[in-house]
Specification:
Elements (H helix, E strand, L loop, with lengths): L3 E4 L6 E2 L3 H8 L5 H10 L1 H7 L5 H13 L5 H12 L4 E2 L3 H7 L5 E6 L6 H7 L8 E4 H4 L6 H11 L6 E5 L2 H9 L3 E4 L2 H11 L5
Parallel strand pairs: 1-4, 1-6, 4-5, 6-7
Antiparallel strand pairs: 2-3
Helix pairs in contact: 1-2, 3-4, 4-5
């Protein structure tokens, strides 16, 4: 029996747009799957998403990592501005989907995010107070797909792994959840997320 639903944010509830934006930051031309694997494997991304470096340091580090260049201040400012604006907003129906989860089910966020995006997600996109638990990578000091972040969730919620349903847009994160015994499904967008929740009879 599922007691907890954990939502990833990017590309599940939050629209991150086309892969071209991701590729631009990575100086690559990969398909969506390859680009995300490269992003999740980046030491610069991991350091920022786990709260260890500032946005400016992240910009400097990632530009050097992907291109070998030492970017000037104009390029760094442009990168930071573009990065902050990356999440386009919630997918249509995202808040309605969250609200439709049955009241006895614990709702949580499990997301790789950062100090630059968190205020937009919580205030601008009105995700604050919509969930019972917020597991954000930059607050926890761990990022998906590291097993440690999932273990932290289990410890804090004090439930068995099989009592959690986790939905995420990256298979590598789903595989990590499965390795601990969680129920987990890869989805993209609200329509696919709603279909999974409906299959588990978790929404009104």
């Amino acid at each position: 029996m599922v007691k907890v639903v954990l939502f990833d944010l990017g590309n599940v509830l939050v629209n991150l747009g086309e892969t071209t934006k991701l590729n631009a930051m990575l100086a690559s031309h990969d398909n969506e799957k390859e680009a995300w694997l490269k992003w999740l494997a980046s030491p610069s991304v991991k350091a920022f998403d786990t709260g260890k470096i500032t946005l400016t340091d992240f910009a400097v580090s990632l530009v050097k990592e992907v291109s070998g260049d030492k970017a000037d201040s104009v390029r760094i400012k442009h990168f930071c501005d573009e990065f902050i604006a990356w999440p386009k907003g919630l997918f249509d129906g995202a808040l309605e989907l969250v609200d439709s989860v049955k009241p006895h089910i614990h709702k949580g966020i499990l997301s790789n995010t950062n100090a630059a995006h968190w205020p937009r997600l919580m205030q601008e996109m009105k995700l604050a107070d919509k969930f019972d638990s917020y597991f954000a990578s930059h607050h926890l000091g761990f990022a998906k797909p590291d097993i440690a972040i999932y273990q932290r969730v289990l410890d804090r919620l004090n439930v068995r792994p099989e009592e959690i349903l986790f939905i995420d847009d990256n298979q590598i994160n789903i595989d990590a959840a499965h390795s601990l015994g969680m129920q987990a499904h890869k989805v993209k967008g609200v329509i696919e997320a709603k279909a999974v929740l409906s299959d588990y009879n978790l929404i009104n």
